[in-house]
Amino acid sequence: MKKQGTGNSKAVSVYRTRMIGSGLLFFLIAFGMVGPFLVSGDPGRQNLSAILSTPGKEYLLGTDHLGRDMLLRLTAAIRVSVAIALITTATASLIGVSLGILAATRGGLAERCTSLLADTFLALPGLLLVLLLVAIAPGSFWPLYLGIAMILWVEQFRMTRALVQPLATSPAVQATRLLGFGPWYVFRRHFWPELQANVLTLSAFGAATAILSVAALGFISVGIRPPTPELGQMMIELLPYYQEAPLIFLQPILILFLLVLSLNLIAGGKIR
Amino acid sequence: MKTLLDIKELTVSGEKTIVHPVSLQVRTREPCTILGETGCGKSLLAQAVMGVLPSELRAQGRIFLGERDLLGLIPKQRRAIWGRELAILPQEPWLALDPTMRVLPQVKEGYMVAGAVSGASAGRLAQATLSGLGLTDAAGKLPSELSGGMAQRVAFAAASVGGAGILLADEPTKGLDAQRWQDIVDLLLQKVADGIGLLTITHDIGVARRLGGHVAIMCEGRIVEQGPAARVLQNPVHPYSKRLLAADPASWEKLGGRASNGVSPVIKAHSLGITRGGKQLFKHQNFSIAPGEIVGVTGPSGCGKSTFGDLLLGLLQPDTGTVWRDGSHPPLRYQKLYQDPPAAFPRSITIGQAVEDLIRLHALQPGIRDTLMDELRLQPELLDRLPEQISGGELQRFALLRVLLLDPIFLFADEPTSRLDLITQQEMMNLLVRCARERQCAILLVSHHADLIGKVADRLLFLGEEAISRDAAFSACHQTSPREHPVYGA
Amino acid sequence: MNQATIGYRVFQAFLVAFLVGLGTFIMVRVLPGDLAYRIAAGRYGYDLVDSVAAEAVRLELGLDGSPILAFLSWFWDLIRFDLGYSLVTGELVRDAIFHELGHSVDLAATALILSLFIGPPLGLLAGFRPGSIIDRLVLASSVVFRSIPHFAIGLVLIMIFSIQAGLLPVAGHGHPLSRVLPALTLALGLAAVSSRIARDAMIKVRESDYYLFGRTKGLSESQVFFRHGLRNVSVPIITYLGMQFVYLIEGVVVVETLFAWPGIGHSLVHAIVARDIPMIQGTAFVMGLMFVFLNALVDFLNRLVDPRERVV
Questions:
Q1: Given this model, what pLDDT does residue B330 score?
Q2: Which of A151, B219, B246, C101 has its CA 20 to 30 A from that of A192?
Q3: Domain segments of chain B as ranges
């Protein structure tokens, strides 16, 4: 009894979801990039005569409690979040996929060692691990980068290992080797086509995790230090003024939500 | 004989018609069997009768169960019939059993459906039914702990305890070995003897033959011929029926059986032995094969037939013994054909691309491809498709093409036709034999199908417990020379 | 739960101790040298500290010996639960954590139970009618709530409830209703995931061969659901709880800070800000252990619901 039908329309809707997500992300990044050209100035410059001003002519998106331009601060914060997400995810994917293929194709000691490493990083909830690292040197970039990359590579590794392991021993790969092809061909024609959609999905989730972690750390005041603007840090700074200036207060929340939403959509609306 | 189920002008259609008007009757004490190949619409017919067609398909016509026309009933009335009057034995018993529920309750609930039975006595009845099927110990097991044959019998029990007067069996012997095959067909015959109406859907001519009764042959959504089994299966009239029945390996003319010509072998094995999963598969196994020769390997499932071929190809290392190859041929000329054609190709690139990659890697003449495609009767447009988009038979021929590009001297064919339909199987085997003869390629053919291997192989190699006795028996009836004699218990 | 799974969880607990121990050990090593003095001060009070006491602490921490030996003794203290004294309050870390843990468990359990009342029922409802309006609503809200971090959910909830309506206490701990907002904050995020899991599982089960076979055996729709649907749907939901605990524990850290809830996560953040190393170590360790314990609980529940043997 074959099941027909739903498969195709599902693929179409996933594709559409991904496209909407990509569009949204592109728009946000473009906003982050273009911001400094719209208004010139320093996101840290205070103007105490115009604190918490509502969006208007002088300040397109208003000012915060210290009279700093929200547009400049938000766009700078987007650049910080996206940059950290990009490098941590790229690092994690590269390491995760390589080690995953190593574990799946070599087996034996290589697999045991890499799996132990992965289990070690899974023993603690990710944010706790990042917190521990950040606590060593608060406010600096390296522990943040290392910590986030360390929690992200594990998922890429486990996915790669799980997908490649059955492939590595499959008749298809055996036949390819018998026909004289080398390991690079096996990777290019057999492993990578199966991996790429999952690497993309996990990278989108990973980028979301990275952005959320950075914001969470900023929110509890142990992340990126002022004066560099960061979304979580902006939220906690603006919290006391939510009654006075709700429009200002909601801006970083909205940006963070849209960033994470776009990445969740790129991941096809799936559950990780 | 009473008519239990009367199908009149039944069609199944989605965007286009898939099953064209079919009329068929199921009577008491006369098994009714629909015989056809993959994709002929026979399973849809069963689903239409049951009322479980996929939502995008609909059935038209009439299906009389006694006085009632099933297609005229509302869904709720139809459901009231399930299990009580009409039961279906599902195609994949393993998938049809709840993976998280033990066997006994899954059988027991059928009794509770029939009503008027309390939980406790339903339990006793279910236990008795299981015992009657030789499944006394299975009651407390989970489906994942059952073998294929056991799962099929459990599904049989669960489907039939509701007391339905008509049983639909959809491919009841799929994937079963010879012994289990016999068991399940006997069970079906028992039901018929008890007065239950039986409609069986199968691709297996043996099943139709053994069930007897009434047989309908189906092709491309139409019943091309129907009548008493003895007549239809012995003297088919319709050209398709003739072709189908002639494709049964039992009816093939003998292709193999050629005496060896005494040429030096391309590959030899001396005293091979291997243990896998803690089980000694074989030891002290000697073997040799000459160019153009076809050696069949048989033995019970799990005796290491495929392992033996993989050892020869160097894909596995033996525990003991050695494999010798004629050093004048490069290793690339020792190749393999796989059981499941789609599993042997990269999934995400077109067949043309896969072939192209191979030609480029070994700097072969591009013209060879087209010559071979002609020879294997493969259409050029297939090159643009992905492996999953073409039929198993075509794909297996591409697999053959792929290895022929390398001009093999030895080919290990591991159950190359077990996933193919009968007619396709026959075509494939003819091609293989031709390839051995014309190209002087030695072929080691593994098959569980005794008829097939008996017709194709020049000589046989038996692996497994009964190796010596079976070997001797085969020697006696086929005067083939020179033989490999496995020695056991050294 | 079989021995292999229990063994794996015990192993995981050791890994937690190792990671936390290593992290805090490095912290001690890289921090400026007056640490021994500060620890001694934390223990005896600033007035009573002299160089002798500091020297004693220095020896105790092995700050002048071989790093490997020092780490081993550090690790040994940790797995014996000898967590030392807070540098800030001088209180025994063990006692402080014991007290805070109660509050955190209270919050986490309330959130989890709340989420189980929201997520899976909505998911099942959607899964019964894939493509319907309910299904689309559940899917959309699942994506939206998964995209708002817990603290942002908390902020918005604070805005809506406490100020506009004055219905619920915003922060602190004391009023019985004060747990509602922080718990709801966490529960919404959890339910966003569990509703989706339940929906996908329900669809998969309803399309399965065994579900169809249950129907054709003659069971009614509700019989099929209760006999063959419910248990098979619960398996992925429970399995996913394990993953959700990551979210829960991370959430506890941030949400407690936001709502000034006197739990262990709040205390961890304070300790990091104050560089109170024994406290960082103790809270991180206990949270890690809580995570392991919850996962073991999931193993146990799974075993209860799904009779199949599973290997971790």
A1: 87
A2: A151
A3: 3-249, 267-489
Q: Would you say C264 and C280 are in contact if contact means Cβ atoms under 8 Å apart?
A: no
Q: Tokens at residue B275, please?
A: 């243990």
Q: Which domain holds residue A159?
A: 2-41+76-267
User: How many Å apart are CA B387 and CA B341, to the nearest integer?
Assistant: 8
Is position A250 within any domain?
yes
Q: Tell whether C212 is within 8 A of chain B (Cβ).
A: yes
Looking at the structure of chain A, the number of domains it has is 1
CATH no. of B3-249? 3.40.50.300
Q: Residues in chain A whose beta carbon is closer than 8 A to a beta carbon of chain C?
A: 1, 3, 119-120, 122-129, 131-138, 208, 212, 215-216, 219-222, 232, 235, 239, 242-243, 246, 249, 253, 256-257, 260-261, 264-265, 269, 271-272
Beta-bridge partners for B442: B410
Interchain pair A220, C257: CB under 8 A: yes
Query: Is residue C281 within 8 Å of C39, Cβ to Cβ?
Result: no
| Element of type H or E holding C202 | helix C180-207
Mean pLDDT of C81-110: 80
Q: How near does any CA of chain C get to the CA of A215, in Å?
A: 9
- Asked if the model's pLDDT at residue B479 lies above 70, the reply is no
Q: Percent of chain C scored above 70 by pLDDT? A: 79
For B258, the token pair is 């050629």
Quote the minimal CA–CA distance from C209 to chain B in Å: 5
Enumerate chain B positions whose Cβ falls within 8 A of a Cβ in A. Answer: 43, 47, 54-56, 90-92, 170, 313, 315, 332, 334-336, 338-340, 343-349, 354, 357-358, 361-362, 399, 402-403, 406
What ipTM goes with this model? Answer: 0.79
Residue A187 DSSP symbol: I
Residue B388 has pLDDT above 80, yes or no: yes
B74-94: average pLDDT:
86
Please check whether residue A8 lies inside any domain of the structure: yes
pLDDT band at C23 (very low <50, low <70, confident <90, very high): confident
pLDDT of residue B152: 86
Chain C nearest-CA distance from A48, in A, is 26
Which two three-digit tokens encode residue B241? 């029926």
Domain edges within chain C = 108-263
Tell me if B109 and C308 make a contact (CB, 8 A cut-off). Answer: no
Average pLDDT over residues B239-255: 87
Q: What is the CATH number of the domain that holds A236?
A: 1.10.3720.10
- Residue C210 pLDDT more than 70? yes
B66 SS3 class: coil
Of 3.40.1160.10, 1.10.3720.10, 1.10.3430.10, 1.10.274.10, the CATH number of C108-263 is 1.10.3720.10
Residue C214 has pLDDT above 50, yes or no: yes
Query: Can you say how many angstroms the Cα of residue A147 is from the centroid of all Cα atoms in its chain?
Result: 13
Range B267-489 classified under CATH 2.60.40.1120: no
